[in-house]
Design brief:
Blueprint (H helix, E strand, L loop, with lengths): L2 H20 L1 H6 L13 E4 L2 E4 L8 E2 L9 H10 L3 H11 L1 E2 L10 H4 L3 E2 L1 H14 L6 E7 L2 E7 L5 E2 L15 E7 L4 E3 L4 H5 L6 H12 L11 H26 L1
Parallel strand pairs: 4-5
Antiparallel strand pairs: 1-2, 2-3, 6-7, 6-9, 7-8, 9-10
């Protein structure tokens, strides 16, 4: 193989590796979603609707539409697990692995049922499942957990349901949860004017937040799944390609 062909092959391998390192899930969601500035306005009100920018840049979604009790995938799970809200809670905890977002990207319940999601994805799924049983006072709560942005579920009797646990359990310190907004498919309740916009200004550090939860619950919270195997492979390929390019250029220079 000629030097030029080796360099080109190595460059391609490095590029493929870098793309893999960004994660297949990021590609599925669309790369522009990774680069939406956190400071950009994410809330827009129109004709009484709360629209949020939490998927692709330029895409505005009705906040209430993320809770989907009539979704066929939700109903299929409910028919097998429901109607007990605690059983539905346990199903989400045991079957949805915690994965952090690249940027801010809210999944639909169907997307989360593939087996992974972050705090708002699990909360949206669990609220959809509980609402599928007709319980009116089940909400997704957006707010802060010990100062960090978070999402959880408030059940019909007002109990905090932490969907990032590995199993259904009572939250040991509900006072650590400070809601700004509660919503479901029927209504949006802001605890003060402009609270929804303030949610997106909260700090996000999943490692610290999950560590705080684990400490408070006796290690009951899901740890982040970390870098996926394919991402690790991509990183190895990327550095391998760059190393090969460097060696070739060095050899050429020596000659």
């Amino acid at each position: 193989m000629k030097v030029g062909e080796i360099v080109l092959t190595s460059a391609i391998a490095g590029t493929i590796g870098a793309v893999c390192f960004m994660g297949v899930n990021s590609l599925r969601r669309g790369l522009p979603a990774l680069f939406l500035p956190q400071s950009q306005a994410r809330v827009y009100r129109r004709n009484g609707e709360c629209l949020v920018s939490v998927r692709y840049p330029g895409q505005w979604c009705n906040l209430q539409d993320f809770v989907q009790p009539d979704n066929p995938d939700v109903l299929a799970v409910y028919s097998q697990i429901g109607p007990d809200p605690w059983a539905l809670y346990d199903f989400v905890c045991r079957n949805i692995d915690y994965r952090r977002d690249w940027g801010e990207f809210w999944q639909t319940p169907s997307e989360t049922l593939r087996g992974y999601g972050d705090c708002e994805d699990s909360a949206l799924l669990l609220t959809s499942l509980i609402r599928a049983g007709g319980i009116p006072n089940a909400y997704v709560a957006l707010g802060e957990y010990q100062g960090w942005g978070h999402a959880w579920v408030v059940s019909g009797d007002g109990e905090v349901l932490e969907a990032t646990f590995t199993e259904a359990r009572h939250v040991p310190h509900p006072e650590h949860y400070c809601p700004y907004v509660c919503f479901n498919d029927q209504e949006v309740i802001e605890l003060w004017p402009g609270a929804l916009g303030e949610v997106f200004k909260l700090g996000r550090n999943e490692d610290i937040k999950l560590s705080l939860m684990a400490k408070a619950s006796g290690n009951g919270a899901n740890s982040d799944q970390g870098v996926k195997p394919i991402a690790v492979l991509g990183l190895v390929i990327a550095f391998g390609g760059l190393a090969l390019i460097g060696k070739i250029l060095y050899d050429i220079g020596v000659r």
